[in-house]
């Protein structure tokens, strides 16, 4: 070969998955380390990269990834966040004899728009509308939807695997929605409760209600078949709390163990005569033919956010959307929602 061969330096950056494998920890823990500033990272398009030298330094210092630390892990001092300086300047000049490499973007800020997005837990269709509007907002971001029930949503918020959880958990002792559960499931972490809508919960029954199913005492009857929701969702919690109040043994209810994972699935089962009644929201009953709705209890549907996150720009953009005329108009068009209190701060817990 004639002339000098150009040697391209090996890429010494790692993906979060590769960092997790090297440190033998979970990928979510790597993201927490980046968020805390324990590992400097930068963003290339939609992907995160971590300098290999920074990981090696982290290992040499022997710090546990599970807890915040005070060690400096960057190979060069990082400027204060408020200064706006870039520790990876795009115009850096390569050393003599080295080939030029692609400029590195600014360090990754887990809460800065527009990436990597926010994880929102919940099942109601209004959350899809909220997610779509958040993605179109000039200061918004992508919303990643986690279709889990209220109980698991609050646990995800506590464990740091979600940013926002929706909830409609009724406590029979206090008559309150959500607040008692937040105190139990997110202990010691200040949270903010944001009002969304009020929804009517009731029974789905066959058209004309031939079995004459009228109130909660239907669960004491042996001549009708029930279809249940999954454990942890707000509708299931409402049912079990009501049964406790009435002193009804759930094991005596025909169909109690048969579970489905949405209001529409419950209503559809009634329409197909696979069950005589099931519990769900009024709006879903309107979407299935040959099903009537027996109203029982109006419930409160809230969003739950950690207080430390609530003050950040992305969450303020989310609140702006919830309080907007456009969002209210879309929910009104869907029907089945009481919008009184939409966007209000219900409580700080």
UniProtKB/TrEMBL annotation:
Molecular function terms from GO: DNA binding
Domain of life (superkingdom): Bacteria
Low complexity compositional bias, start-end: 71-99
Keywords linked to the UniProt accession: DNA-binding
Ranges of residues in domain Helix-turn-helix: 14-62
Composition-biased stretches (Polar residues): 60-70
SUPFAM superfamilies cross-referenced by the UniProt entry: Periplasmic binding protein-like II (SSF53850)
Domain PBP: 131-323
Name of the molecule in the record: Excisionase family DNA-binding protein
Organism: Heliomicrobium gestii
Taxonomic lineage: Bacteria, Bacillati, Bacillota, Clostridia, Eubacteriales
